Amino acid sequence: MWKLSAMLAVAAALAAQSPKYGVGRPATEEQIRGLGTAIAPDGTGLPDGSGTAAAGREIFAARCSKCHGEKAQGDMGPALVGGQGTLNTAKPLKTVGSYWPYATTVWDYVNRAMPFDQPGLLKPPEVYAVVAYILNLNGIIGNDQVMDAKSLPKVKMPNRNGFVADPRPDVGKKTKGQ
Amino acid sequence: MRDTKRSGKDSERSSRRQLLRMGAALGGGLVAAREKVHADDGTPGQLGIPLGPYGERSPYEKAVRWRRDSKTPETGSSFTPLADSVGTLTPSSLHYERHHAGIPTIDPAQHRLVIHGMVDRPLSLTVAEIRRLPSVSRTLVLECGGNSGSEWAAKTAPDVQRSYGLASCSEWTGVPLSLLLTEAGAQHGAAWVIAEGADACRMERSIPIAKAMDNILLAYGQNGEALRPAQGYPLRLIIPGWEGNANVKWLHSLKLTDQAYMARDETSKYTDLMPDGTARIFTYQMEAKSVITYPSGGQTLPGPGLYELTGLAWSGRGKIERVEVTTDGGRTWVSARVQEPRLPIAFTRFRLPWRFDGREAVIASRAVDETGYVQPTRDALIAARGTNSAYHFNGIKFWKVQADGTVTNVEA
Q: How large is the ipTM?
């Protein structure tokens, strides 16, 4: 839905152009690697390594529970579990389990931004394990299901199809008498 | 508190400045000293403080950003004191902030912007190289997608700073992003730019390449000087009319891709939950909005009389066409005087003389932008979106001027 043909047309027009100012220097592979890992929903960018919820339980207790609570129910940090079935109620609870559309996003965010006070601390196998644990707590994968670059993008998140394109302006259109 | 020494020695200058600061803190002492300067009582005047290398505002000026107390002060928001602002620009020092992992200290000589992914020529650029390129300056409002989010609730924030202060307006200077994407040679099929910051959590957002080629600015300047660290020093994106979060600060990576990366801040956050349980995604666009800043919540009018009612209007879609004001709770509206020049996607100051007769009055402003979009009521927004969408509240804001001159939030 988001891959609008207009954008592709712009990109095609760009491709034909050549540098005019010649600024900068070629970015090296090492430089690009040094920027870390951004993960696409199809798994592009996921590194080697693997983990299970069983392994993630211990890491979560040591690194995550301080803010997110023993059972990831939320404390100083947001709840990571529960809320399924609440999105259309008066009190929606938006969590990884109830709201996040892609498991790859959980990996990407834990890897780049968590733990809050030491972002980037966890190594890829630890990230896989913690993500597996959070998914398991939400009843999305089994306790022993191995999460790796192949399996993680295939995880079906409960709210995968819960997002719609922006229809605005939906209110505020010019009306008579205003 | 009076300092009668006139020595040029640095140490004494410094102690004089300390005394002046103390005087400011204690109030009366400094007033006495200042009055002495102008006293026509036959005694000599006192010199003021010496010239300084970087300016400070008067010690009498107290407006500051507001933020909630937090156990994690490195993340959160601080709000611009809109009620204390005059004109249309926000001082860089009072620009609203929203950080996720603290403000990094970046040496511009060490900083690199890397453009990679689906490009023919992956590029690494220094800040100096970027500053060498053809630049443009634009005065633009920047507004957090969550600004006025508290207005969705029945009980809202008490004043304009806390309810509308995640919006600020600066002159930004930088290089059109299109120029750099052309230099790198975007490949066929590149549809998105994944922008990443160099803060501790490496904040990232996905941005459609069409917008990047249209009018996004790679900014290094704000209000005539380099960006403040809190505003992304040394490089950030400025995306005219789009929610603040997408305007990635401390920019160090632009990765061209064929797909959006569905980052945390464009899925879990900055998506707008509707009553049916679906959520709108990629809701970048900010819409027309206005608010009266004087009189506004928390202020007190000293008594009946003639006042200049004033406020700010802006739209993410272009210029403000007109601003209408009501002083009778929305029964009748009159056009306010709008400060020229009206710049697109910028704070636009409106003013209206108003006689407060000492009876309760409910006042509000309503902006209309050049696309014909009319700022909606809170009720209309809630009818369309419910009360759990969190972001993009731009409803008409009512203040109640009570008979005694105190001003409160109607919804409070």
A: 0.91
Q: In terms of Cα–Cα distance, which of A41, A171, A77, A172 is closest to B274?
A: A171
Our CA-based measurement puts residue B269 at a distance from the nearest CA of chain A, in whole angstroms, of 9
| Whole-prediction pTM | 0.90
**Is A168 within 8 Å of B287 when comparing Cβ atoms?**
yes
For the domain A50-162, what is the CATH superfamily, name and number? Answer: Cytochrome c-like domain (1.10.760.10)
**B293-345: per-residue pLDDT in tens?**
999 999 999 999 999 999 999 999 999 999 999 999 999 999 999 999 999 99
Could you give the CA distance from residue B228 to residue A16 in angstroms, rounded to a whole number? Answer: 37
- Cα of B320 vs its chain's centroid, Å: 17
Quick check: B271 contacting A, CB < 8 Å?
A: yes
Over residues B145-161, mean pLDDT: 92
* A14 pLDDT higher than 60: no
Element (H, E) at B173: strand B167-176
Cβ contact B276–A42 (<8 Å): no
Inter-chain touch A20–B277, beta carbons under 8 Å: no
pLDDT tens profile A110-121: 999 999 999 999
**Subunit contact B186:A102, Cβ cutoff 8 A:** no
Whether B268 has its CB under 8 Å from any CB of chain A: the answer is yes
Q: Is B9 exposed, middle or buried (0-12, 13-18, 19+ CB in 10 A)?
A: exposed
Spatial separation of the C-alpha atoms in residues A172 and B396, rounded to whole Å: 11
Which of A:14-73 have CB within 8 Å of B? 14-15, 17-28, 31-32, 35-36, 38-42, 44
Domains observed in chain B? 9-62 (no CATH), 92-275 (3.90.420.10), 289-409 (2.60.40.650)
- Between chain A and chain B, the number of residue pairs with CB atoms below 8 A apart is 230
Chain B contact for A139 (CB, 8 A cutoff): no
The residue-averaged pLDDT of B18-46 equals 56
Q: Would you state the structure tokens that stand for residue B256, as one six-digit string?
A: 């061209």
